[in-house]
Amino acid sequence: MAVTLEAPRRGNSLKEIWIQFKQASRLGWLIESNWADPFVFAIYSLIRPLSTALILVFMYLVVVRGSTSNPFFAHLYIGNAFFMYAGRVMMGISYAIIDDREHYEMLKYIYISPLRIFVFLLGRGVAQVITTTVSVLVILLLGLWPLGIRIPWSSVNWLLFWVSFPLGIIAIAFIGYLIAGLILVMARHAWSIADGVGAVLYVVSGAIFPIDVLPIWVQAISKAIPLTYWLELLRRSLLGSSFSPAFNSMPTWVLFLWLLGLTVLFGFLGYVVFQRMNRVARQRGMIDQISGY
Amino acid sequence: MRIPPSLELFLRAVVGRAYPRIVGANRELSWLIPESVLPILGLAAYVYVYRVMKAPPEFVGYVVLGGAMTAYWLNILWSMASQFYWEKETANLQLFIMAPVSPMAILLGMGIGGLFSSTIRAGAVILLGSLLFGVTYQVTSLGLVLLVFFLSLVALYGMGMLLASLFLLSGREAWNLSNALQEPVYLFSGFYFPVKSLGFWAAAAASIIPLTLGLDAMRQLMFPGDPTMGFLSPWMECGILLLLCPVFLYLSKVALKKMEHAARIRGTLSLRWQ
Q1: Where are the domains of chain A?
Q2: DSSP H helical segments within A158-225, as ranges?
Q3: What is the structure's pLDDT at A10?
């Protein structure tokens, strides 16, 4: 009797994609968190971002020797807190390739399951959004008390915040896809691509200083990435003022349009590069490569 | 004079474990690019923060020196302490344990092999950082700088061996533990600001990490601009480091023996993907 083998069909309907997304998010969460009990996991998740924030606090205090209620400190602190999303979500999506290909050797099984790799990586990103949100909230609370950052609550532009915030996360996720695509066809230095992009973005996005102090040619790069506008919009919505004099005269709606336009551009780039590299990696048999590097 | 067989075996194990790291680093030179560029990017952000705040110029030097020393801390953390976890994942750990050599010899070999690439990374950071950000050094005593640097590394690698013993029992938490130890040590050892600003007792507690005192002493000897920024005198810091060296080496020897025994009982030496 002839046996016919049918390849697992990847669903295209919205309902099936939603189911895949939910499962991928749950899986992402479990991979991130199930190595420890929730209390230990919470401590581990907070130690690193808290330390980074406190390094900036001490750098500020040792030089200024003044109060942390200064608006400059508030801009620096809030920029650093929200930049954590960039590091963690981008890394969550791109590092999943390294982890599952080289370390756990599971990537090939993801490919032969009904789960779409694109949706699977999104799930890994969602897990990072959840853990990062907890870290950001704790850091912001530390900023409000005991550090005494002043947020003018009565004039916070919540509409601007809630429209800008998810848009920036989407932009970050697509940068993550872009890197994940490159990692798919790299044997060595895959980790350094992810780390390197994170480090470059930390400098050029003006997360902890105004971009005006950067050389002119670096400022041009700053103005071509969505994160710069995202952080500026978040600061403007929460603190009511700009960090960088370069954006002082730019109306908020123009900043928002820049963020929207660049998110669409990076979304297109991230999707196209990832799909292209995904095809190349499959053609070259690189999905299950283990370099041991 | 004939070398005792046990010492000969120890030394051969050190050379045997250091060899692949040094030779591997020379065979695949492309690692030099990310290893020299990435740290510069990381510390550039801190340099710009100091510049915006109009900090005295020596603060940029503090950041560059701290950024260079991160190479050794990262080497300890990822290529020594958590290395037993990676060896477990690649099924090499059981071979190391079966071999008739001391785990200290293997760790020392890893350390010496790692020192090679870490020193290149640190050198690149000093060179590029100094050129890019215009750091000027006023070394008051080169001999003492070198002595402090040497003692800091000996104590630090002893501490690395001690941490490695903890990782013998670890599974996936090893990765997270290394992650969790990275930035907190940057904070408490004052990699990017003078450790004195943490306050006396916090700085004293942080002195258990050899790089805290090593960095503070080297900064005082290389950037004597503001003498009030130092935590203790360089000579006193040198003396404390001298005490820390044998303490960490002894503790690591005891801990490795105990942890290896515990790992044998628990059966975690060959446990992968946990």
Answers
A1: 14-283
A2: 158-184, 190-204, 216-222
A3: 58
Mean pLDDT, chain A, integer: 88
A110 token code pair: 């993801």
Instruction: Give the tens place of pLDDT for each residue, A77-107.
Output: 999 999 999 988 998 888 888 888 887 888 8
- Among A40, A48, A67, the strongest candidate for a mutation testing the B interface, having the largest count of B CBs within 10 A, is A48
A residues 236..275 contacting B (CB < 8 A) = none
Q: Judge whether B172 is closer than 8 Å to chain A, CB to CB.
A: yes
Predicted local confidence at residue A67, as pLDDT = 78
Residue A36 contacts B, CB cutoff 8 Å: yes
Cβ contact, residue pair B34, A189, below 8 Å: yes
Q: Which of A61, A195, A292 faces B38 most closely, judged by CB atoms?
A: A195
What ipTM goes with this model? 0.89
Nearest CA of chain A to the CA of B126: how many Å? Answer: 18
List, for residues A211-241, the tens digit of each pLDDT value: 999 999 999 999 999 999 999 999 999 998 8
Determine contact: A118 vs chain B, CB below 8 A: no
Give A17's contacts (C-beta < 8 A, 6+ positions apart): A11, A116, A119
Give the percent of chain B with pLDDT over 70. 98
Q: What is the pTM of this model?
A: 0.89
List chain A residues with CB under 8 Å of B45: 202-203, 207-209
A150-154 long-range contacts (CB < 8 A, ≥24 apart) are A150/A69, A150/A71, A150/A74, A151/A74, A151/A238, A151/A239, A152/A239, A152/A240
